[in-house]
Amino acid sequence: MIERPSITASQALERLMEGNGRFMRDEVHSSRQTRADLAKLAQGQQPFATILGCSDSRVAPERIFDAELGELFVVRVAGNVLSQEVASSMQYAAEHLQTPLFVVLGHEGCGAVGAALETRDHGVSHCSRIQLLVDSILPALAEVDSALPPAERLTKAVECNVRWTMRSIRQTPEARARLAEGWDRLVGAVYEIDTGRVRVLEDLERPARTGSSS
User: Fold this and answer.
1) In a domain, 94, yes or no
2) What is the Cα–Cα distance from 10 to 91, expressed in whole angstroms?
3) Strand-pair category, 101-107 with 49-53
4) In this predicted model, what pLDDT tens digit does every residue of 138-155 receive, in sequence order?
């Protein structure tokens, strides 16, 4: 088995942002893996970060963070929402892969968040299963002012949705247990589709540190 990454959460975040910088400058280093690299990966994986992102085809974490195969454990679902299946995948990353960093990655112009705004502000109904997804986003929009201009309203809603997912993750029994052990490196970010930049959000609810540094 491949050993887990010997990297802290802070180092993992720095590595992600360095990769995003290369992506923005069109200086990517990824996609250089050889057959020997693939053979090594066949023995196991050691991702240094777990990303919960949106299914949007324009928001591929491996591309925007300039990461190689095996470096990121990625869970993607429309609206980057937390469900039982998503939570199970993240628990696997925590317990078995022991990734030191977890990132909730939203993106500007998110269609799922926009659909939720349409339902909240205009009473728009969507197809049955889409409506279930939309309904899971609605609680995140409580602080979004419906009087804001449409573009500003959607930007605010995307950020609020990222924060809501972070809050939902922290309320799971598994996350609470890890917090008790000193783990608290959960980061929210928003990807700007037009520029390629990943903007890390200030964590307004980050618990006080009680364990060793990460």
Assistant:
1) yes
2) 20
3) parallel
4) 999 999 999 999 999 999
